[in-house]
Amino acid sequence: SLSLSLSLSFISLFSVGNTVKDIITIEIKPKACFRTAADKTLTSKYPCCRFCSTIESRHLNGHIRAVTRYCPRDMFSGDCRGVSVAVSRLLDEPLSYLTVHWNGRRVFDEDRRDITAMLAVTGFRDRAEFVAIVTQVLLAPLHQGKTVLAVIEDAQLCNSLSLAELNEVDRIFVDAGLDLDTEIAKWVRGHSELDPELSEMIQHVINFTISVIAQDLSVMISLARTASGIRTSPGPRVSYKNQEYKFKVSVVDVELKSVKKLPMYLKQEQREIGLMIESKREKER
Q1: CA–CA separation, 131 vs 149, rounded Å?
Q2: Which tens digits make up the pLDDT trace of 214-263?
Q3: From CA 138, how far away is CA 249, in angstroms rounded?
Q4: Taking Cα atoms as reference points, which of 190, 177, 183 lies closest to residue 258?
Q5: Measured between alpha carbons, how far is residue 249 from residues 1, 54, 59 in Å?
Q6: Mean pLDDT taken over the chain
Q7: 218-225 and 24-28: which strand pairing?
Q8: How confident is the model at residue 138 (pLDDT cuts 50, 70, 90)?
Q9: Which of 129, 127, 128 shows the shortest CA–CA distance to 117?
Q10: Are 183 and 190 in contact (CB under 8 A)?
């Protein structure tokens, strides 16, 4: 799981090139498609990803005026159609999950929602080109043959325990007079002196923190158009209707989270699941 975390950190393997002047940077927060590996039975009975249940919870509590049509299940579908739908819906409702920069200047976000103006500034010929290029980049094999979305999905699923079980691990360490964050830091550096049973518990906690990281990280896409037929430097490329783009993909916000937030995650999880079930029952009446 640590190697998975590192693969998230170092998936930025490509350079757009120093000779390119105009750079389009697109930030996407795919959000949480999965809550934990332990909730698969629940989500098969109440089919709703973590993002959608959170949005519904906020809507039911009056924190937001409406739910969004964007769903991470489309983004993590693994197929072109699903990812295209996700990108298109983020264009219509960017919220805080899609921003576009042109040479470092923000030109599209939740407060700047003029798609036509953004396309004109960045040089995309139409909406279809934007969606197609971003979709191709997100589905390009980058890390050991996997797409960036597949790596993030693996990370979201790497936790095998429920949050209640993870809180029990926290209690065991507290009762033993041990600080989990300190012990994790020692474990990562290879300086841990814990017995095998506690070391295994540490691994479960690290898996949890990785899954939490993967639920709220950002995918940064840098694009640069290339002249037709000219290859000034190596690197991955995508194209749409004879226009080629060099691209770079980075994943940011991948620092390990403090396990002191475990109780907060448990309460949030229980609240969201309860509201999700309540909402489904209301719809079935």
Answers
A1: 16
A2: 888 999 999 999 876 555 566 789 999 999 999 999 888 766 667 666 66
A3: 9
A4: 183
A5: 21, 27, 33
A6: 80
A7: antiparallel
A8: very high
A9: 127
A10: no
pTM: 0.81
CA gyration radius for the chain?
A: 21
Write b or e for each residue in 50-87: b if 16 or more Cβ atoms lie within 10 A of its Cβ, otherwise e: bbbbbbbbebeeeeeeeebebbbbbbbbeeeebbbbbb
3-state secondary structure the chain: CHHHHHHHHCCCCCCCCCCCCCCEEEEECCCCCCCCHHHHHHHHHCCCCHHHHHHHHHHHCCCCCCCCCCCHHHHCCCCHHHHHHHHHHHHHCCCCCEEEEECCEEEECCCCCCHHHHHHHHCCCCHHHHHHHHHHHHCCCCECCECHHHHHHHHHCCCCCCHHHHHHHHHHHHHCCCCHHHHHHHHHHCCCCCCHHHHHHHHHHHHHHHHHHHCCCEEEEEEEECCCCCCCCCCCEEEECCEEEEEEEEEECCCCCCHHHHHHHHHHHHHHHHHHHHHHHHHHC
Cβ 222 vs Cβ 25: under 8 Å: yes
Backbone angles phi, psi at 245, to 5 degrees: -130, 130
**Cα–Cα dist 206/1, whole Å:** 8
Written as one letter, the residue type at 114 is D
Largest CA distance in the chain: 66
User: How long is the chain?
Assistant: 285
Give the integer Cα–Cα distance in Å for 119 and 126: 7
How many C-beta atoms lie closer than 10 Å to residue 44's C-beta?
Answer: 8
pLDDT band at 10 (very low <50, low <70, confident <90, very high): very low
Q: Which amino acid would we find at residue 8? A: L
Handedness of CA 155, 161, 164, 165 (dihedral sign): negative
